[in-house]
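Entry 14. Two folds queued back to back today. First construct below, sequence then structure tokens.
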Amino acid sequence: MPLDVRRLTTDDVARMMDFAVLNREYGWERYAAGCELARKYRFAAYHVLPAWVKPVVNEIGDFAREHAIEIGAPVSFPYGASHSLLKLKEAELLIEQGATALDMVANIGWLKDGRHEDYARECRDHVRLCHEAGIGAKIIIAVGYLTGEEIRTATRMVIDAGADFVKTATGTGPPGRPTFDDVHAIMDTIRSAGAKTRIKVSGIVEPKVLNAYAFISMGAHRIGTRDAARVVDSLAEIQETVYHAE
């Protein structure tokens, strides 16, 4: 459902942000700085690479629980081509270490090969594991590698699996995606199914802040980005210059 950006507050926008620190070269100093931003802005979630989940939980776990901030991580990132059992084991370990949201990269090759039952089973298994643990489950379908029809097919399987979110991308895929057409395809599929599945848009291209608000206005429920603070801080300017709020 479209959203009127003119009516949003900075708190509203912060609660739409899945703040992500996913650079492979970063050490604890960068993740600790991310913890401070999560404390300051109270984003919907703070997502980190799997090896950093436990240190982040140790640093801000109590604060995150108190303020309903998810501590998330990707599973089989960024390719989605790990063995299904390894994906489940990785997810189990991350849950044990305190992760409260897991974004699994789906097996794109299976979708391309028409192995829909394997693709759907892996999605179902991820959702079941997460929901049994009481945490959120997202499936990354990686739209940059898919045709419009493949996006719709993948979205239908994610819906049927019971995932909380369809997520567009890992942020490491082909440049220029996701497009507005990609997100429209996901939204139309969800609407046609009468589903309550939500949409997380990640991998946003430049101009990131402007495009983030464009996706929000389209009805995206979450924005996954390393620039979450910049998106929040830009609200007043965006409202005035783009949406002409008084």
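Second construct, same run, same settings:
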Amino acid sequence: MTHYFFTVMPLFVVFFWLILFLLDFRRNDTAKRFLTLFLGVALVNYLAHWFYFNHNYPVYRLLDSVWVFTSLAVYPLYYYYIRLLTEDLKLDWKWGWILIPAILLSSFSTVLYLLMSPAELDVFTHEVLYHNREYRVGYPLLVRLQAMRLVLFKVIFAMEVLLTLYFGLRLIRLFNEKVHAFYSNVENREISKIRTLLFFLVLTALISLVSNVVGKHFFSDHPSLLALPSLAHSMALFGISYVGYRQHFSIRDLCQDQQEGECCCGVESESEAMT
């Protein structure tokens, strides 16, 4: 029962916040709507996790490639959410290229699954994805390619986390500088919440890097330790969602205030010229 609870906890957290964001979807700005998309992708990802850790082999084999896509999509999507808060005034579909690694590796996984025989699927599932049987050498080509895909996933995921952390922190820092440069009083604007977002970005990145290095098969082999990543991911997801839900000030508000300030300056200049 305890094991089941910890497998479902991150899924429940994401589902809870996704419902709240969907209820306000029409009233939300572009950034919050995009965060809703992020939560939807995360929900599918943790649903696949739930099937994996509860050893539902047939279903997880169907969802494994989906899990690859969602896992490699969440950090690029989170980065672009930060851009919508701090840099971009509207969605720019040119940024769709950040999902190319997720699309390519998940497609590669899907093709391999379609080509594998029932015997190869059985070997890959029970000896590579899970360690139910002793790991051996001399696997068929398709099983070796799937094992290579798992290694590629870890490398790409680690790179995405580090790049999101670096460029995300940079966007937040530059945005805070813009806010301080324009407003004499940054209270209710400069966003202590963006600073909190920065904290959760770092926290989530660290958790993801550790989980990626260890591998989810480790927690499948040691179910008593599953509580650690489950609690950590749940807290990080709750924090990201809470900060995003409470965040009301963004680059759009800053640009609007700057435009209004320019208009006011123009009116004052005309008045001085007439007197």
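Quick look at the second one. Residues 2-267 form a domain with the Rhopdopsin 7-helix transmembrane proteins fold (CATH 1.20.1070). Residues 264-275 have pLDDT under 50 and may be disordered.
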